[in-house]
Amino acid sequence: MKKGDHLFLVDGSGYIFRAYHALPPLSRKSDGLPVGAVAGFCNMLWKLLKNARDTDVGVTPTHFAVIFDYSSKTFRNALYGEYKANRTAPPEDLVPQFGLIREATRAFDLPCIEMEGFEADDLIATYARLACEAGADTTIISSDKDLMQLVGATTQMYDPMKDKQIGVPEVIEKWGVPPEKMIDLQALTGDSIDNVPGVPGIGPKTAAQLLEEFGDLDTLLMRASEIKQNKRRENIIQHADNARLSRELVKLRNDAPIVEQLDELVLNPLDGPKLIAFLKAMEFTTLTKRVAEATEADASAIEAKSIAVEWGEDAHGPDVGAGATTQDTAQRGPLTPADLVAKRADAVKKLAKEPVDHTIIRGSQVLADWIAAATESGTLAFDILASSADPMKAEIVGLTLALENGICAYIPVGHHSGDSDLLGGGLAEEQISEGDALSLLKPLLEDASVLKIGHDAKFDYVMLAQRGVTLSPPDDIQLLSYVLDSGTGAHSLEALAARWLDKTLSVLKELTGTGRSAVPVEQTSMVAAANYASDLVHATLAIWRVLKPRLAAEGMTSVYERLERPLIAALGAMEQRGIEIDRQTLSRLSGELAQRAAAFEDEIYEVAGERFNIGSPKQLGDILFGKMGVPGGSKTKTGQWSTSAQVLEELAAEGHELPRKIVDWRQLTKLKSTYTDALPGYIHPRTRRVHTSYAMAATSTGRLSSSEPNLQNIPIRTAEGRKIRTAFIAPAGRKLISADYSQIELRVLAHVADIPQLRQAFSDGVDIHAMTASEMFSVPVEGMPTEIRRRAKAINFGIIYGISAFGLANQLSIPREEASDYIKRYFERFPGIRDYMESTKNFCRENGYVETIFGRRAHYPDIKASNPQIRAFNERAAINAPIQGSAADIIRRAMVQMDAALQAAKVKADMLLQVHDELIFEVDDAEAEKAIPVIRQTMESAAMPALSMRVPLHVDARAANSWDEAH
Questions:
Q1: Boundaries of each 3'-5' exonuclease domain copy (predicted)?
Q2: Alpha-carbon distance 881 to 887, whole Å?
Q3: Which stretches of 23-94 are DSSP H helices?
Q4: Helix (H, G, I), strand (E, B) or coil at 478
């Protein structure tokens, strides 16, 4: 090596953990071998090398090496037996990947360097010194603070995750001291991750101030009696020996006895076939194609390399075999994702029985230390204790963190004293302000290399987004459970803790109290809140450790990563945007509904022959079945006549006048109370818009539901219901766009059941209901009577939902025998649908679940129930779920892809609402016509590239001033 050369040194161990935590889990399809970290490592190294070899981009290295930790047992353990003793074992699914990553490095034709007894940082320090002595420059590929002591005139660092160069100015900006003082600063602050003791109560900011005042550590310790702050002075004097020991532990050795010399680190041209052989063995198809294209190699002619996997005691790497809490890796044996799930399920139940170790963070410096520890760890469980369940209106009371080792911290920011006035008093003392806490936490919460684990992460996402913080990347145990176990149980944190931890979690009312003694969350004590919140976030982390590997074990990774996880941000943005409503329109509609309801009341009284409380089921039942003697009545367990909607609908279908009028009256009064009267109360005081909240894990099929207000249930089959939509408007100068999938469930049915007639009709753009009527009733499509088409439409949609002859008879007001004949004739004309239904029921009986076309599972364990009614219900649900669920998955995919598509087309349109098969957007007047084709194309191609539909999807879209006009 000579002057002008440039050495790149990659902190391989740091790369491993960043790759592992930044990317979703991945298993090799052929045998379930966990390879997610290998994939991330290869992609990161490929990108780094590609840029490094590009002479037009940054610095071009002449020499290159990847440096690894051999293990955590080094010479430092002889200095201090507790060094890194509190580090937990690496995740079980990561252990076999250590050896594979070393193989990957050699496949890239790069030096793979490690040395027993020394840390990778010591080897990096040694090579950096040798390069400097040779007159060359060095770039260390890492963001590890331990390496910042090496930064100087010839040595810089580069953080590839943030694409950021780290030189002397950046070190000073980050830590308040130059690189040459980083050793002294770390000696004072210690390191909770590596168990470096340091001096209690001294964080980076305080350490920097002390070093600026006294110059260096030795001078500080010698003159410690001059420190003015009592507690600080006492701590430094008392723990001076710990500071000196810590200095020896953090100081990097630059004289390691290296084997590979500098001249052996020359960066050679990439050997395409060698790398492709490894990538094919790992089954990384995308990267294989990229490498083949870049090296002009024929990947099809290259055989996959045979690679042995290091398991258990054969594996070595950072933290394997180190620390008092480390599990005996020699006992692991072969490990598959299913093995990992079983091992973790047992481990977390034992862990859940232990007391939760937590602290209350009351100062910014302590918080900064926790942030540093979380950043180093790469994994963080996170939760917000909020003042209400509405993320758009709630205030932050406290924030809770849990590190990978399970230690928790509660940060009070919004507790009130509650003892001064009717408003609950001012903010309590001894807590960090919300602004200061979020300012410190923002880089961590937005750091893509640190995984944020939560339950109902969308709630936290919305709360933080309003405060200028983007939670990234979130991992949600509620959604993990939903993907894995939909239909088998609840997904609340309490339910998950009971199922996976055998633990009963506290509920909020236990913290706040109930009845007259209840207090707002913000007026609870910090200690009680910390106990409550820490318990929840600790359980969240434990449950995540069980559920996450199940994705790979059960082949559900794609469903979670493609359909659920990305939707958190999409829905969070929609909830924040909200939609404008017109109070005057609602007021007018409310008056109209009141008048019509009053008219119905008069007619009801006239038919009944007396006035009574129409809203009273008891009085209605007594008149309907007692006084009037209408046949078909039945009594409930309480002895009252049943007047449910189903009972009244059936009586109305049989021609009874009073039940029909009661049904109509109920619909009108419900519209008035639920929408025209209630919607104005949902207008947000700051945004002046209505913000619904979407539940992602509420239905078994993947459909979203909304609440506060519920916009999914606005009836559109009646004229009065459709009028509600006229109140949803665009502000001046803007338009609403409604984009609605046309007959998507029938199209999905044609795809999954592979019905030739339906596929052809959709491909030709034929009226599907008219075509069905023509097939069934032998009536020409041209000039077809409206009534015939209406019957075919009812059958088409009824079949999807497993409608019975009784239900179809009621819907069409025809005899049950005629309805039964229609259904029989339908299956005769479309036998593929009958085959689909039978095969679906058989599959569900055998497996306990059914799947959508994208692999989402809906479980129906009661499909084998002995009770015929329960069994029949589950059979109908199992038939419908793949169809309705696939349609729901398609619109989810469209929502996930939408923002990127609009940005690529340079169209500014805001997605506001999702209602079943419809998306609502708001856009400037001038952008509306440009936005529509982009929206339509994105929705119609949403299934791609996962699969190609056998039938085309069609979207109707138009812009107008109100939702009703646009629909």
A1: 358-552
A2: 10
A3: 36-52, 75-79
A4: helix
Interval 42-87: pLDDT, tens: 988 898 888 776 655 467 899 999 999 887 678 888 888 777 766 6
Task: Answer whether 938's CB lies under 8 Å from 891's CB.
Answer: no
Q: Write the CB contacts of 743 (distance below 8 Å, at least 6 apart in sequence).
A: 768, 954
The secondary structure of 946-959 as a DSSP string is: T---SS---EEEEE
Which phi and psi angles does 330 have, rounded to 5°?
Answer: -70, -20
Residue 44 to residues 93, 96, 114: CA-CA distances in angstroms? 20, 19, 20
Amino acid identity of residue 913, one-letter, is L
User: By the 8 A CB rule, do 883 and 542 touch?
Assistant: no
Give 80 or 240, the one with higher predicted confidence. 240
Spell out the long-range contacts of 602-607 with Cβ–Cβ below 8 A and sequence spacing 24 or more: 603/661, 604/658, 604/661, 604/662, 604/665, 607/657, 607/658, 607/661
pTM tops 0.70: yes
Cα dist from 967 to 324, 381, 727, whole Å: 64, 42, 13
CA dist., res. 59 & res. 48, Å (int): 11
pLDDT band for 141, please (50, 70, 90 cuts): very high
Tokens 């708001």 sit at which residue? 922
Instruction: Please state whether beta strands 955-960 and 734-741 pair in parallel, antiparallel, or not at all (unpaired).
Output: antiparallel
Give residue 327's identity as a one-letter amino acid code: Q
How far is the C-alpha of 388 from the C-alpha of 476, rounded, in Å?
20
CA end-to-end span of the chain: 71
Contact 534, 453 (CB under 8 A): no
597: pLDDT strictly greater than 80: yes
Angle at 876 between CA 873 and CA 880, to 5 degrees: 135
Q: 123 pLDDT exceeds 60?
A: yes
* Distance (Å, whole) CA 457 – CA 471: 9
Say which DSSP state 256 is in.
Answer: -
- Taking the C-alpha atoms of residue 228 and residue 221, their distance in angstroms, rounded to an integer, is 14
Delineate the domains of the chain, giving CATH numbers in brackets.
6-301 (3.40.50.1010), 345-577 (3.30.420.10), 745-886 (1.10.150.20)
- Residues in the chain, overall count: 967
Maximum C-alpha span of the chain: 108
Model confidence at 238: pLDDT above 80? yes
Tell me the backbone φ, ψ of residue 306, rounded to 5 degrees.
-85, 120
**617-659 per-position pLDDT tens digit:** 899 988 888 888 888 788 888 888 888 888 888 787 777 888 8
Q: In the chain, how many H helices and how many E strands?
A: 38, 22
pLDDT digits (tens, 9 = 90+) for 421-433: 444 457 888 899 9
Which residue is associated with the tokens 């408007």?
Answer: 729
DSSP code at position 215: S
Q: Quick one: 333 exposed, middle or buried, by C-beta within 10 A (0-12, 13-18, 19+)? A: exposed
> Is the torsion defined by CA of 505, 508, 514, 518 positive or negative?
positive
The string of pLDDT tens digits covering residues 774-794 is 888 888 888 888 888 888 888
> What is the secondary structure of 541-607 as a DSSP string?
HHHHHHHHHHHHHTT-HHHIIIIIHHHHHHHHHHHHH-BEE-HHHHHHHHHHHHHHHHHHHHHHHHH
Q: Are 46 and 287 in contact (CB under 8 A)?
A: yes
User: What Rg, from alpha-carbon coordinates, does the chain have?
Assistant: 33
Give the C-alpha separation, 420 to 416, whole Å.
Answer: 10
**pLDDT tens readout for residues 531-562:** 999 999 999 999 998 999 888 888 898 899 99
Q: Measured between alpha carbons, how far is 30 from 33 in angstroms, rounded to an integer?
A: 8
Residue type, 420: S
Phi, psi of 185 (to 5 degrees): -65, -45
Structure tokens of 435?
């602004």
Residue 332 has pLDDT above 50, yes or no: no
State the DSSP code for 626. Answer: I
